[in-house]
Prior knowledge:
It is a single chain. With 429 residues, the chain is α/β, with parallel strands linked by helices. Helices cover 45% and strands 15% of the residues. It has helices spanning 3-19, 27-38, 60-65, 73-76, 93-103, 120-133, 148-162, 184-192, 202-210, 212-221, 238-254, 275-290, 316-327, 337-341, 344-354, 378-386, 390-406; strands at residues 47-51, 53-54, 56-59, 78-79, 87-88, 90-92, 108-111, 141-145, 175-177, 197-201, 227-230, 261-266, 299-301, 304-305, 355-357, 364-366, 370-371, 419-423.
Amino acid sequence: MNVFQLRDRLIADYSSYIGSFIQIHDQRMRELVEMELAAGLLWPDPLIQLNPSFEPGRRVDQLVDEDVLHRECRRAFRINKDAGEGLPLRLHAHQEQAVRVARSGVNYVVTTGTGSGKSLTYVLPAVDHVLRNGPGRGIQAIVVYPMNALANSQLGELKKFLGQGYPDGRGPVSFERYTGQESDEDKQRIMANPPDILLTNYVMLELILTRPDERRTLVQAAQGLRFLVLDELHTYRGRQGADVAMLVRRVRDALSAHDLQCVGTSATLAGPGTLQEQQAKVAEVASLLFGTEVRPENVIGETLRRATPERSFSDADFLRDLTDRVWDAGRHPPTDYHGFVNDPLSIWIESTFGIQADAQTGRLVRAEPRSITGENGAAAALADLTGAEEQRCIEAIQEGLLAGYTCDPNPDTGFPVFAFRLHQFISRG
């Protein structure tokens, strides 16, 4: 699927829909309105951002060998299990760091962006604890999501790791979703046989603490709870944040969770100050929410690395290669991994849409989302750099982005070279 063509079709359909409501008799007014709509008044140019590459960590098998993870994790956490035994799962550096911090028993927060595998930073430690403590001993971990869609997505991930590869799809660690979407029959089944890991939302967790049936079953099964996870921590602010903070305290009291380990996940660190100052601020907010200390050094951020070689746009040799690449309309992105990542256009795309060096520290951070088209778009910048026509630059950029999905994947991770997101904002008519 070509997402750029899909976007254009959606906007064309929406434009036609909006236009059907606009009947302006005055010619000058009609021309002005049509000009503004054509300029993107209600649907500005989409923004593009690459999901960056991450510094690799150890494989799950290696952490099992170190006794950081239970031996059963070697079997459960593998990729491509639908094709057989699967392959060992290699973690990102921040995922490995989170697993090691979790093993020490302290509270921690993972602040990494979209596509960084945040869920594994708490699923792996929770599963490891259940395996070491013994499954079937009641609810040992509760994961709280701000939206049911996130809980539904995570349920699928757990099925992939803790279901696939086991007889009847039932692994050694049980899990259930309890969010209000379930039928009465499913709720009764879950209450009769509480899982090791419970996925829910903060509204339902409040109801679990207050409704008689759940208090007799789920609350009783969760006594001595070990893990409490708040996913998407940044969504809890203002009055809602205060409500969730009080809920966490009631959970600790109602479940006699004296050794409760609190885990939070959030978006990439943002805001003024150095990395250490940002970590301190996140730790302060998380401590307020959890009602227990989160130390700044246990706020785990992402460590990025380039997929392509680093080249300067002022390098005459690179600029010549990039210019030749863009001007040659008959030259398409390589399909092999090493050829693709060394393509001058791929290097430029990653530097523009993916990763940039922080001006103060030199640390690699995610690039701000940027449009391809428009006066300040990336195509105009590429045209200025190479002297090529802007339309040719648009075509080259789009082709390069799409080729990141179709070329050979990264041989170390199995992931596509470039995974990008297209953000389209649409205003009401």
